[in-house]
Fold this sequence. Notes:
Layout: E1 3-7, E2 10-13, E3 18-25, E4 33-39, E5 46-51, E6 58-60, E7 68-73, E8 78-83, E9 92-99, H1 106-110, E10 117-118, E11 122-127
Parallel strand pairs: 2-11
Antiparallel strand pairs: 1-3, 3-8, 4-5, 4-9, 5-6, 7-8, 9-10, 9-11
Amino acid sequence: QVQLVESGGGLVQAGGSLRLSCAVSGRTFSAYSMGWFRQTPGKERDFVTTINRSGGTTFYADSVKGRFTVSKDNNKNTVYLQMNSLKPEDTAVYYCAAAPRYFTTNTSVRDLRNYDYWGQGTQVTVSS
């Protein structure tokens, strides 16, 4: 089993920044590609970004490209999501997820079924 615990969410004004962390335990962290998704009430969980297990390839949703940066520290078994220039529409519960695979396409990283483990989520609220 793999356990994922997100932290770092909170309330921030538009234009501000937050850094989310996702600590992973239970298996070899370096074997997993790590993704971030977000969800608002009544809507589907949407892809935000994924970093491949090697750390060499990243994918981003168009809505966050240029503002969000994903990174992973294999020594700390942690994946990070640095969010800058936040907008009210970024308000959501953010989830990290682990996938035991190497992604090569934009389609595959967006498919929730490719992720085997999920965290409990952390709330991010951006006020206008």
